[in-house]
Design a protein that fits this description.
Strand content: 15-25%
Strand order of the largest sheet: 2-1-7-4-5
Helix content: 25-40%
Order of helices and strands: EEEHHHEEEE
Shape: elongated
Structural class: alpha+beta
Number of strands: 7
Radius of gyration: 20 Å
Number of domains: 1
Oligomer: single chain
Length: 143
Amino acid sequence: MQTLQIEARVIGRKKAAVPGWGIPVPDAWFDDQQSKTLKDLITYIVASEVDQYNLRQKEDRFLRFLSNKQIEDQLVLGKIEFGDKEPRLADSEPAINEALLAFTDGLYYVFIDEAQQTDLNQIVHVCDSSVVTFVRLVALAGG
């Protein structure tokens, strides 16, 4: 496995929306013989992020704590609990569909190594030094 670097930016802001991060990618993604489309790339990245989110949700379940005020408030009710017993997990399929629709609707751009990608069916090539940048567009008020 190798790592693909991801960035998220917002038009009009100098700083990145969030710090850049890496996601593990199978070596086959870096093989030019394997034809991968922009749709494949977005799908893989979104699925990976949903998996990471779900993992954090499960881990957070064991790391929760209550403030003194929360404990006192719940003591009045006669029972102290942490809230939901099961973490709320995301489903990757709707997230992927939303991401692909948002791209089609022009709500964000995708750049691979500073080259804009404009078609979901376009073949993309990434290497271990590639940076995939998502640029979210912001609607103008009153526009």
